Known about the structure:
Two copies of one chain form a homodimer.
Chain A: E1 2-3, E2 6-7, E3 11-14, E4 19-23, E5 34-37, H1 40-48, H2 55-72, H3 76-87, H4 94-107, H5 115-151, E6 157-161, H6 178-185, E7 190-195, H7 202-214, E8 218-221, H8 226-231, E9 237-240, E10 244-246, E11 251-254, H9 257-266, E12 271-274, E13 280-281, H10 287-290, H11 299-302, E14 303-308, E15 311-316, E16 329-332, E17 339-342, E18 345-348, H12 355-360
Parallel strand pairs in A: 6-7, 6-9, 7-8, 9-12, 10-13, 12-17
Antiparallel strand pairs in A: 1-2, 3-4, 4-5, 10-11, 11-16, 14-15, 17-18
Helix pairs in contact in A: 1-2, 2-3, 2-4, 2-5, 3-4, 4-5, 5-6
Amino acid sequence: xxxxxxxxxxxxxxxxxxxxxxxxxxxxxxxxxxxxxxxxxxxxxxxxxxxxxxxxxxxxxxxxxxxxxxxxxxxxxxxxxxxxxxxxxxxxxxxxxxxxxxxxxxxxxxxxxxxxxxxxxxxxxxxxxxxxxxxxxxxxxxxxxxxxxxxxxxxxxxxxxxxxxxxxxxxxxxxxxxxxxxxxxxxxxxxxxxxxxxxxxxxxxxxxxxxxxxxxxxxxxxxxxxxxxxxxxxxxxxxxxxxxxxxxxxxxxxxxxxxxxxxxxxxxxxxxxxxxxxxxxxxxxxxxxxxxxxxxxxxxxxxxxxxxxxxxxxxxxxxxxxxxxxxxxxxxxxxxxxxxxxxxxxxxxxxxxxxxxxxxxx
Amino acid sequence: xxxxxxxxxxxxxxxxxxxxxxxxxxxxxxxxxxxxxxxxxxxxxxxxxxxxxxxxxxxxxxxxxxxxxxxxxxxxxxxxxxxxxxxxxxxxxxxxxxxxxxxxxxxxxxxxxxxxxxxxxxxxxxxxxxxxxxxxxxxxxxxxxxxxxxxxxxxxxxxxxxxxxxxxxxxxxxxxxxxxxxxxxxxxxxxxxxxxxxxxxxxxxxxxxxxxxxxxxxxxxxxxxxxxxxxxxxxxxxxxxxxxxxxxxxxxxxxxxxxxxxxxxxxxxxxxxxxxxxxxxxxxxxxxxxxxxxxxxxxxxxxxxxxxxxxxxxxxxxxxxxxxxxxxxxxxxxxxxxxxxxxxxxxxxxxxxxxxxxxxxx
Lengths: 362, 362
């Protein structure tokens, strides 16, 4: 997508130096910082410390981490250790595990001398698959927006989204925002209400920024406001991304998603989850009891980053003595979800857990 | 209540100088600032700019504003103008209107020469009524906590609260937190999960601070987290305050309350609203369509206050070009509320809108 009219992806191979380049998202929206990742250990840090984040992107980043590990050693046991480290950086998004599994599955059948070039080819392929899946999600999701647009006689469609499931959460295009971009680029009027998404403010910092860069009209709201906006008929549909989708359609996504799903259900507003098949976990049925939820450091709640006169600061926003608890995700049960948008098409809630649905992800 | 072991109320008459003193809550938790209010115009500013806030407190503050107006002029028309200005400072909490109405009702029957002393007496009385009502709410609410405590065999009761409905929102004791203080002071184990409450962070800044000052165990969470905590059975009950309660029990309260009520309902967790009768509006039946919701400045969303190395700063936390929308309240429909705690007792949802319920508030 575009940053000041220049095309970017969130991660890419610098072929001449055999290193990985990423947008270091910790500095957005205040500064565009490109970081060079030289080793699988650096990639582990970049994932766990959230230099990059987003289900699709951390999957592809882990694949590139395996490529870097192949550069570091031709020893299979070493590679497995590095893979283990990459897999343990973050627990909730299944994309990470899916990508590492795919890399290892293939590489174990490859001669040690060819592992580096094969790992490069495969990581490149997973990166391209992520891009293609997001493009397809955009096409299928835009269809839903066009149907709503017809119902509203072409009036502006108001979308609510939570966290960032735009292009910054993938290699390009995004999941939840891909339909918005597709719809907008065809000249339809659309406006996005952006949930701030405490504690890390991915909505305020990333979604607002990427929508502004593409010229999509949007308004920032606090996470508390979505329910009221739905009660007042200011939202036509909700689209969010996912970090893991269970076989029966339960969705782990950024903490607070469940609250918006409840409000959408209560107000009969369509609530869609957009995700590529790399986010699907066929091994899990009940999301609430089976998806591991990441607990992150309390400081993410107690401190905040901001800008004053061009300078960035981190400051404390709570009393000195106050402790905090910080879960990264929650699980929205399938019963609250209207439909799912994948690279294979859009699916109604009643199509979930069918043979057709499961076959699609094999 | 206590601030570093010294007893305070949030507002009081300085009798020797005939001025009003308030805790200027804009500086909490970083600094304790006492502001002197000399005129009804200064009181208007203190209310609208939220030097003080909270349904009960702004009612009493408006009563003291009328007292200051009586000092300024003995002219009845002038007094009515000042009353109008006080009433227009904030639209949602009915306490403001109720207090000003009571003051004017009484003062119009008083000789102009006696208005000042009568206004002082009446404002003092409304202040005392606020204190007494909150004390009673504490007693009635603690009964509910004791019942839960028995069910849990004396294990710690985990309360979730949103915004600040503690003593800082009233003259003393508070509404939602009064039962917690009463229960805690009798030696029962209790722990409060405090919703941060964006955009003004009254939870992180005021509730966490006042709980710490009384020694009540508490943990700060982001507004997004409550639903997940309920799903994981970490919350025994929710208690919130109110800015206006309709005759059929709909509740206007800080934006985001509705989302927590939905989550409590979905997880079968008791959801209580604590309020003194000064917050009741018998003239309104359907809260959602009839209670006016205050829209505040977008900067409250786009900027944030914090502390760094002992110094306070205001920072921008969103991209430069991003617009924001900022509603102060939402309405929770009565169907989601388990019960109400007033100075007259605790009431089940099915007792609402009965003759007995309405008679109580007359």
